[in-house]
């Protein structure tokens, strides 16, 4: 459909054929002030948006927008933030299409009020991060900083946001619970913290798209180009989800899913997902207020984050607003249309989302964090020291990490630093390190981990590549240069 | 140590140097009757054994026996059954060593009473089975019979026995429970069947050594050479283990493991293992009396078998005798010295069993059951139909099965026949089938499955091979001949 739309634009007269002009002022067009622009935000009447210095009348385009109503969030305002949010806009063809709707320039010296930028309330982030996108913010630590501490400091924990960070007043915050079709209740933060036992759980959280950068070497995927650092480990403190659910009464066995809606929203509705009732009732599934002993940072879900140990990052919903017991999975687009177990044969055009199951659990993963890829090593030193992390989903722990300098002909077992966690509840990553004789290193060094179900990592990325670059977990290989 | 012993035998005069003579009558030696032989079974005095027609005085060897005291089970009797049980004996060097202890022949016409054969009470088995060993019995269906029924008929369910099948009188059978250091209780079969709710669970059981035949193509392993058929699926009916444990009272949180001892024994003690308390308390972990609606067959654990869905076959203990709540894992040799997550670097000589964790959960598996390997296909037919099973441990279901005719360059998705089971409780295998155009088939066709944690199967066996041939789950490939 997107392709069809792009093709369709050929019949619209192109006011600017050069994509480099997109958003730049053009001398032959009238100027408009923000006050005037703001009056053009009514679908069916006229819809203007601003991009950079350009003013565009997109009335005719609104209904054709592949992203649906979302475009109206920028009506009478600036669309810059949204274009940053959705990578698909970053193509010359899309920019050309936008220019075809150009009607004028933003009046010189005019500034958009901060209020118009939905990301203007976002918190500051660590200067250590590699920021892949600013709006919404997505940032990770460089690999070699990742394995400094087995509990990742809060400020260094990767940030994966889909939307602007909600601004929440803890005094008025309420968590809503819908536990039967006709019953609804809510708790304020004080209730939550005082009415239920407080528990702590140590759990790693990994984004399904971690290592997408490598997947993109194999073929173009869609999403943030994580280098391996979209994972962290923390102690989460809060109350058990099951304590709240049980507090409400006997749970009707028809309710097989717990839907969670968040406070971060866009015009299509809130961010959200669902988890199976069995996982919701697990003693380690909690509503957390604290991360590593501190108040939950805004970027990690202040005031309340759902922690679902062993599950993929996206199910660990931040800024929890509403919890609903339901007979069905979440109907929200974030649950239904993404984060699924895609096949190498799937593509955006042909995937049947209903046929692909959501990712909850995750396969075993390991990364060489240092040395970093493409650095040189001194062959006069006897050994080269390798360090990294390993992790598996579903509470499966790491039992072995092995490195190879001959692409799997032989393996060198690494030393493991594991957390003490019970079988089936091994939620935390493991660190590992190994010394390899310099003389053994030709060029490539790869790592693989084995979890307690005996799962290893696939040797080639080709066998697991998918168009969303999810669950990239083939052997992690780096190349080193002898000096 | 074994090697050392073999080397040591060189100083003992060899009465027969030809290994083909082992167990045959030799003309120049005296004859002994069973009555006389039976009097020589006292360690420290004299120990004779019989192998075939040969009589051997092994008094000097008893203490050196690598298998420990087990050798005394045959004292004053026939050792044939035990040699069949332990493959390590089937070497020319071992036979030569035995002949060095030869003192005579069994008197002509003498027959060993059935009582002396611990396997004489074993039940009859399906004629469909490939019987890998008779004593103890280990048999599987040929692959092409395996996928006929999604619930494997009881008589066709693979049999993996370590020891003789116990002969149990259901009227006197008692299940013992040791639930505190000083408390012990027991239930007879009538109690078990009447005092607790009866439940049914559908679960596949797979032997950790399934597909060891292939592992042996890569390098010699130790164990039964299963061809892929060491798996079956059944509905098990019985009572929840947790109902019995709760019946006994509050469980002290110090008890982290449930040890299970079985009725099948050898001189070293009973067969047995342990499982973590969390798994023991799971609603689907049961003590089964029935298999597919019939009384549990003797080969499958009559009268009571522990069913631990999602766990490797060996933990699904047959002929349960005693259940003990404990602070530690089972001390039995079958638990401590085998069925562990071995590395490709481990060998019998160097493995530190304590360092390797027991296999409980199992990785994703799939097998092409038909056509069978090395058969021809008619290239005049448009398609070749492929069928098989896929399975993953830990309650993870199969989400996708794919075949490749070009060793992973491209994949053809198979049709899945899955059981309706809840996420996290997907205990049953899935069947699959796919039609592949004859023209696409060069020679090799491989299958791989993906489970709901996103785990696939490794493409090469080399990366997972271990000396015990456990958890062999690389892509299953067959070769076909065009005609």
TrEMBL record, chains A, B:
Which part of the chain is the Cytochrome b5 heme-binding domain? 29-107
Where does it reside?
Mitochondrion intermembrane space
Q: Which family does it belong to?
A: Belongs to the cytochrome b5 family.
Task: Mention any one GO cellular component term assigned to this protein in its UniProt record.
Answer: mitochondrial intermembrane space
Specify the protein name.
sulfite oxidase
Which terms in the Gene Ontology molecular function aspect does this entry carry?
heme binding; molybdenum ion binding; molybdopterin cofactor binding; sulfite oxidase activity
InterPro entries with a match to the protein in the record: Cyt_B5-like_heme/steroid-bd, Cyt_B5-like_heme/steroid_sf, Cyt_B5_heme-BS, Ig_E-set, MoCF_OxRdtse_dimer, Mopterin_OxRdtase_euk, OxRdtase_Mopterin-bd_dom, OxRdtase_Mopterin-bd_sf
Q: Which organism is it from?
A: Stentor coeruleus
Q: Principal localization? A: mitochondrion
SUPFAM superfamilies documented for this protein:
Cytochrome b5-like heme/steroid binding domain, E set domains, Oxidoreductase molybdopterin-binding domain
Pathway this chain belongs to: Energy metabolism; sulfur metabolism
């Amino acid at each position: 459909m997107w392709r069809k739309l792009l093709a369709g634009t050929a019949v619209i007269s192109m006011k600017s054929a050069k994509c480099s002009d997109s958003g730049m002022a053009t001398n032959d067009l009238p100027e408009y002030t923000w006050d005037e622009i703001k009056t053009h935000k009514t679908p069916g009447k006229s819809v203007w948006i601003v991009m950079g210095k350009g003013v565009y009348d997109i009335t005719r385009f609104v209904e054709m927008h592949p992203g649906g109503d979302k475009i109206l969030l920028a009506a009478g305002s600036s669309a810059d933030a949204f274009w940053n949010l959705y990578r698909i806009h970053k193509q010359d063809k899309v920019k050309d299409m936008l220019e075809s709707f150009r009607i004028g320039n933003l009046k010189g010296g005019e500034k958009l009020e901060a209020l118009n930028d939905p990301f203007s309330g976002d918190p500051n982030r660590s200067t250590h991060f590699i920021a892949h996108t600013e709006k919404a913010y997505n940032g990770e630590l460089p690999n070699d900083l990742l394995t400094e501490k087995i509990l990742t400091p809060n400020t260094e924990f990767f940030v994966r946001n889909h939307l602007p960070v909600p601004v929440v007043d803890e005094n008025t915050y309420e968590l809503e619970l819908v536990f039967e079709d006709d019953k609804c209740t809510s708790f304020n933060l004080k209730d939550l913290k005082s009415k239920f036992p407080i528990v702590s759980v140590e759990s790693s959280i990994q984004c399904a798209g971690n290592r997408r950068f490598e997947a993109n070497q194999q073929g173009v995927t869609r999403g943030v180009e994580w280098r391996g650092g979209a994972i962290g480990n923390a102690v989460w403190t809060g109350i058990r989800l099951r304590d709240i659910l049980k507090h409400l009464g006997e749970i009707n066995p028809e309710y097989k899913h717990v839907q969670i809606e968040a406070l971060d929203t866009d015009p299509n509705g809130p961010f959200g997902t669902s988890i199976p009732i069995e996982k919701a009732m697990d003693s380690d599934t909690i509503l957390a207020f604290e991360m590593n002993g501190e108040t939950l940072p805004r970027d990690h879900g202040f005031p309340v984050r759902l922690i679902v140990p062993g599950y993929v990052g996206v199910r660990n919903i931040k800024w929890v607003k509403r919890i609903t017991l339901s007979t069905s999975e979440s109907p929200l687009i974030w649950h239904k249309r993404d984060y699924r177990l895609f096949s190498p044969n799937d593509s955006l055009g042909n995937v049947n989302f209903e046929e692909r199951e959501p990712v909850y659990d995750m396969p075993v993963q390991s990364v060489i964090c240092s040395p970093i890829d493409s650095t040189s090593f001194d062959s006069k030193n006897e050994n080269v020291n390798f360090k990294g992390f390993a992790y598996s989903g579903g509470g499966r722990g790491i039992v072995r990490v092995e490195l190879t300098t001959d692409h799997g002909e032989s393996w060198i077992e690494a030393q493991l630093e594991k957390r003490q966690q019970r079988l089936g509840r091994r939620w935390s990553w493991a660190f590992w390190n190994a010394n390899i004789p310099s003389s053994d290193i030709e060029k490539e060094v790869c790592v693989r981990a084995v979890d307690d179900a005996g799962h290893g990592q696939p040797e080639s990325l080709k066998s697991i590549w998918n168009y969303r670059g999810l669950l990239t977990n083939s052997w992690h290989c780096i190349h080193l240069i002898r000096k």
